[in-house]
Design brief:
about 290 residues, alpha/beta, two-stranded antiparallel ribbon, about 30% strand, globular
Length: about 290
């Protein structure tokens, strides 16, 4: 079936609409970062850079590190942007732009998020690394897709009961990483966790400036939740969307978190850039090991 111009939107140079990329511009392994300025923090370690492109908050560099071709792309903040990035990355490898048709055989990407996060458990050290084994999304993105088969309803229902979740909020959904890709990135330096993806930075994460929150106990409810030995470890704003769409589209995804704050103890890193650089170097090395 031919995709209409309003469904598959291309720029005049035949690049995908938001990312401004053509299929040959990306590698099979994609690193996503939220902050556009962080793209250069990653690509500066590349041995060579062949492509630099950008549009809006979506900056892309493709090059080589230790003989492996890699792409790093900024997503901006939030799962609304993740919806754009994941669908357009998938289109670059699985849709024939010339014929405007889905390719008969699907290709899979390895997608690794490198981002910052705040811990919810007091025993998680600031500046440490955490891999999201599971993610729970409060953002509603996945409910716009036929996605029941990739969710974990037993964890979702237990969470709703534990938190007395408001009926006026989106129903939380739980998704998991790709364990094959996760094994490549794990070591004694990385803790596994259960990440909460929230819809905002202030009220949704329990921060108060001038506005009262709907549930003053939300963060304590998150940190006290446990289901069959699984507890929520940290907060951020993209992982659930990446995991959910990767599972639906047939890609492999893992989220690597640099813990810059601990919401339980009130600590914040005094060396955030150094900690992030160390996670970037660690992830690049692991991705290119034989």
């Amino acid at each position: 079936m031919k995709l209409s111009p309003s469904e598959l939107i291309l720029n005049p140079d035949n690049s995908i609409y938001h990312l401004n990329l053509q299929p040959e511009d990306i590698a099979d392994t994609i690193i996503t970062v939220g902050d556009p300025d962080r793209v250069d923090m990653v690509s500066r370690y590349f041995d060579s850079i062949e492509i630099k492109k950008g549009k809006r908050e979506f900056i892309t560099h493709t090059g080589h590190f230790n003989g492996k071709r890699l792409t790093v792309i900024s997503t901006g903040i939030g799962t609304d942007n993740i919806d754009i990035v994941m669908n357009e990355l998938d289109a670059l490898v699985n849709i024939d732009f010339k014929n405007r048709a889905v390719k008969p055989e699907a290709s899979s990407l390895d997608i690794v998020r490198i981002g910052t996060s705040g811990a919810l458990q007091p025993d998680i050290a600031v500046d440490s690394f955490l891999m999201s084994q599971y993610a729970i999304g409060f953002d509603n993105l996945l409910h716009f897709y036929q996605s029941e088969e990739v969710q974990h309803p037993e964890i979702q229902l237990a969470f709703i009961d534990h938190t007395n979740w408001s009926i006026f909020k989106s129903i939380p959904y739980v998704v998991n990483c790709d364990m094959g890709l996760a094994k490549r990135l794990l070591s004694d330096s990385v803790r596994q966790g259960f990440t909460a993806t929230n819809v905002g930075f202030y009220g949704p994460q329990g921060r108060k400036l001038r506005l009262e929150t709907e549930d003053n106990e939300l963060n304590s409810k998150l940190s006290s939740f446990e289901h069959q030995g699984i507890r929520i470890t940290n907060l951020e704003m993209e992982t659930s969307g990446i995991y959910g769409l990767a599972l639906l589209l047939g890609h492999r995804a893992v989220s690597m978190n640099c813990i810059l704050a601990n919401r339980s103890t009130g600590e914040f890193s005094n060396k955030p850039k150094k900690a992030m650089r160390e996670l970037i170097q660690y992830t690049l090395q692991k991705l290119t090991e034989a």
